[in-house]
Amino acid sequence: MPNVTIHVLAPTVAPAEAYRRISDFARYPELTETVQSVDVHEPEADGTVLSEWTVHFRNGLLKWSERDTFHPEDLAISFEQVKGDFAEFGGDWRVEPDGEGTLVRFIADFDLGIPTLAAILDPVAESALRTNILKILEGLLGEAQEIVADETAGAARP
Q1: Could you tell me if 8 and 131 are in contact, meaning their C-beta atoms sit under 8 angstroms apart?
Q2: Is the pTM of this model over 0.85?
């Protein structure tokens, strides 16, 4: 299953503030034209939140609903599609201190559910997801830089 993993360093934002900003999914359409809408529902009895997403992809729209589980004590959010255009979609956000700033990690696994076109569509979807998450993080966190895999492998970072 295709995977997108992104590490971003935000040197001027404290972890708790970064988590608060990332948790505000309803604001994401302001940060990139690709995200058309995000409707966030009231929390369920178990504390999870249902959010409904509409995102531009290629010449159409991808729509899905996901269950979001917020873990403020761990500065983490996990999400999993409950219905929608993906065959499978889920992942998590992790926020942690890094010096005086913050390291943000976004990981998502997805399956578009079109095996005959996977070789063509999966790289396009991966690129679109990566580009848009980086735009969102730049809008949310200001000065932020992506840390490539080689940098994270040798550093004391996840």
Answers
A1: no
A2: yes
Amino acid at 58: R
42-73 pLDDT, tens digit per residue, is 999 999 999 999 998 878 898 999 999 999 99
DSSP assignment of 69-131 equals EEETTTTEEEEEEEEESSSEEEEEEEEEEETTEEEEEEEEEEE-S-GGGHHHHHHHHHHHHHH
Torsion of CA 5, 153, 101, 3, to 10 degrees: 0
> Which residues touch 119 (CB under 8 Å, ≥6 apart)?
none
The predicted structure's pLDDT at residue 128: 87
15 Cβ contact partners less than 8 Å away, ≥ 6 residues apart: 75, 95, 96, 97, 102
Tracing tokens 């966030």 back to the chain, one arrives at: 40
Neighbouring CB atoms inside 10 A of 58's CB total 10
CB-CB contact of 28 with 38 (8 Å): yes
Identify whether the C-beta of residue 94 lies closer than 8 Å to the C-beta of residue 158.
Answer: yes
Cα angle value 119/93/88 (rounded, 5°): 35
The 10 Å Cβ neighbour count of residue 108 is: 19
Burial call 7-26: b when 16+ CB within 10 Å, e when fewer: bbbbeebebeebbebbbebe
